[in-house]
C-alpha cells in the first residue's frame, strides 16, 4: 500500500513538472519563406529561421521581442542579425504579427514587414538600385519543440523503477 502512495505522489509531481515546463516562457523558434510577387525580381524566393525569448512579453498592446538568432537566404546570399540594425518579432495583444527586419547594405535593399492584425498581412519589400521595386509574400511557421518533452524519458525511468520495485515486494 505504501508503494502505491509513493507511486501516486511521484506521478502527481511528474505531471506538475511537465505542466510547469509548458507554462514557462521560453525560446520560440520560427521558420519562414516567401517569394517576390512583383517588381524586377518576380519569382525570386527567400527562406530562413529566427528565434526569440518570449519571457518579457506581457501579451497586451503593441510589443516587440528582440531576436536571439536569425538566418535568411536571399539571392544566393546569407544574412543574419549583424546584417540589420534592428530585428524584432512583433506582437499585438499577444498575436504574432511577423518579423521586422531591414537590410540596407545590399542591392537590393529589402525588408520583412510585420502585419497589422496578424501574419496574413505581413509582407516582403525590396528596392533594387536598377529595376523596379517590388513586394512579396511571407509565411511563418512556429517550430514545435516543447521543453517538457525532454522530461518524459526521466519520468518514465522513475515510474519503471517504482514498478519493478513494487513487483519485487
Topology, element by element:
Layout: H1 2-23, E1 27-35, E2 45-53, E3 62-74, E4 77-80, E5 87-92, E6 95-103, E7 109-113, E8 123-127, E9 134-136, E10 139-143, H2 152-168
Antiparallel strand pairs: 1-2, 1-10, 2-3, 3-4, 3-5, 5-6, 6-7, 7-8, 8-9
Helix pairs in contact: 1-2
Key descriptive features of the protein:
2 helices; Lipocalin; alpha+beta; 169 residues; 40% strand; 10-stranded antiparallel sheet; globular
Description of the molecule:
This protein is of the alpha+beta class and 169 residues long. It has a single domain, classed as Beta Barrel (Lipocalin), CATH 2.40.128. The protein contains two helices and ten strands. The chain has helices at residues 2-23, 152-168; strands at residues 27-35, 45-53, 62-74, 77-80, 87-92, 95-103, 109-113, 123-127, 134-136, 139-143. Strands 1, 2, 3, 4, 5, 6, 7, 8, 9 and 10 form a ten-stranded antiparallel sheet that branches. Strand 6 and strand 7 (109-113) form a beta hairpin. Helix 1 (2-23) runs antiparallel to helix 2 (152-168). The longest helix has 22 residues, at 2-23. The chain is globular and about 65 Å long. The N and C termini lie close together (11 Å). 22% of the residues are buried. The model is unreliable at 15-23 (pLDDT under 50).
Radius of gyration: 23 Å
Straight-line N-to-C gap: 11 Å
**How many beta-strand runs?**
10
CATH level 1 class label? Mainly Beta
Largest sheet: 10 strands, antiparallel
Cα shape:
globular
Which residue ranges are poorly predicted, with pLDDT under 50 across at least 5 consecutive positions? 15-23
Number of helical elements: 2
Helix content: 10-25%
Strand portion, in percent? Answer: 35-45%
Amino acid at each position: 500500500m505504501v508503494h502505491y502512495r509513493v507511486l501516486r505522489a511521484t506521478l502527481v509531481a511528474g505531471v506538475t513538472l511537465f505542466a510547469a515546463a509548458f507554462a514557462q516562457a521560453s525560446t520560440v523558434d520560427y521558420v519562414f519563406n516567401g517569394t517576390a510577387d512583383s517588381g524586377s525580381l518576380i519569382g525570386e524566393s527567400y527562406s530562413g529561421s529566427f528565434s526569440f525569448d518570449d519571457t518579457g512579453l506581457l501579451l497586451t498592446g503593441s510589443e516587440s521581442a528582440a531576436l536571439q538568432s536569425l538566418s535568411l537566404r536571399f539571392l544566393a546570399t546569407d544574412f543574419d542579425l549583424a546584417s540589420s540594425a534592428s530585428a524584432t518579432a512583433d506582437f499585438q495583444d499577444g498575436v504574432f504579427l511577423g518579423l521586422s527586419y531591414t537590410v540596407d547594405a545590399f542591392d537590393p535593399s529589402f525588408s520583412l514587414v510585420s502585419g497589422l492584425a496578424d501574419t496574413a498581412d505581413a509582407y516582403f519589400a525590396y528596392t533594387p538600385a536598377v529595376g523596379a521595386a517590388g513586394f512579396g509574400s511571407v509565411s511563418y511557421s512556429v517550430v514545435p519543440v516543447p521543453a517538457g518533452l525532454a522530461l518524459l524519458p526521466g519520468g518514465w525511468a522513475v515510474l519503471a523503477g517504482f514498478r519493478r520495485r513494487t513487483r519485487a515486494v
